[in-house]
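Much of what follows relies on a compact textual record of a protein's fold. The record below shows the convention in full:
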Amino acid sequence: MKTLTLRLDEALYAKVLSRSKRRKTTRSEVVREALNLCFEKGDTSSKGSAFELAHDLAGAVAGPTDLSVNQIHLEGFGR
């Protein structure tokens, strides 16, 4: 097992300490469990970038590619 040193603010350290005492385990075990939960949750809920989420919609809308090239599309904009 590898060793990692990290710094926690007082409030977070108190939470880790409290949970370790309540579970009668080490602070290291509490942090390991929290990290594992974080990575597991991140893997299942990670949806990707905005492009990855909408890649199937690219090209699905008909119309001018750039509204700024035709002034008629800007008519009434900003009023």
